[in-house]
Design goal:
The structure is a single chain. This protein is mostly helical and 422 residues long. The chain has one domain. Helices cover 63% and strands 1% of the residues. Strands 1-2 form a two-stranded antiparallel ribbon.
Amino acid sequence: MILLGTILLTLPISTHTGRISFLDALFTATSAVCVTGLVVVDTGTYFTRFGQTVILLLIQFGGLGIMTAATVFFILLGKKITLRERLVIQEALNQISMQGLVRLVLAVVLLTLAVQGIGAAILATRFIPLYGVGTGLFYAVFHAVSAFCNAGFDLIGGFRSLEPFATDPVIPATISALFILGGLGFTVILEIGQRQHFNRFSLHSKMVAVITVSLLLFGMLLILMLESGNPATLGQFNFWGKLYNAFFAAAAPRTAGFNTVPIGQMTEATLFLLVVLMFIGASPAGTGGGIKTTTFGALLVAALALFKGDEEALLFKKRIPLIVINKALSLFFASLATIFLVTLTLTVTEKKPLLEMLFETVSAFATVGLSTGVTPELSPIGRVLIIFTMFIGRLGLLTMVFTLAHPRKKPFRYMAERIMIG
């Protein structure tokens, strides 16, 4: 998908100038397929309508997931879904059972199209008066797809994202609703629709709901405190404007990539907070990235259990298996190691402040797309590193490790011996 997108974007018909370097086309295609949103050229002004349509399709396929799109294609062709393909779909959608996988895939596609259609219809009421019928409709569809897929690409122009609409009552609200829904995960959305009561939700859905709401409120309050006095960001608004934009700023790092205030003008404390929110990211089986809310939740519950002296990690009267805790720990440390190595390398190659390089790396790894403005200034080496980081972030570290390592169970166990901790 990335290579096909790169070839299409290098065609003269894709850009207004008729040319784009292969590396810039590769960067854009990778960012679109990996639903990241980091860009080295301005999407709204550099690409023609054809190029923007290519990016739109790459975002849609990337957001749905390659296996989901392939399954729908096979069904349309009348091809039978084999056991091997079902196993891959099961892993791609983070499902415990293989039962009803094909029905789930179809439900995911229908849900995606329905939510994006509603979002596009609402956005069209604002974009059509501004840009005319044809352009307004295209803008509405593009931004609805980009938002629900947590891609963060925009067509506003000037690398401004949604800054011109910071006080608009409709556009940021609709965009944030779309990317929050996309970040919850398809299975959670479907379960909420079916069971409709918190007490009947699975442990996974309960954890996703609680952590999502907690991070949104926690992030909003901290950003409100840190940025209210900053005239370049929230300081320019009245109280309700500050609250509105603080909520958007707290929601966007959950891998959405849109912004209504300039990220590069935020204080260092706020940027570091956004790094933490981006690192946690969205939820499994959705369109977002990061280590996921459930990974963070599992580690938090395990740590609290240890502090309380409990032998097992318990949440909502359910036990989280040790293998899940170990998997979460492995993912956490592998993610930290990747971010450390890429940030260290970028700090050497780009000669930029450490916080800016850390922000860029985490944004790429968590497929967020927020930037302090340094992305277009990256050197060729820096761009290749960010491409690599976006790819790893979307594919998943554990997927790559399991694919390359081929782990095997040993027929024996070594003797245990304690070590001192702390």
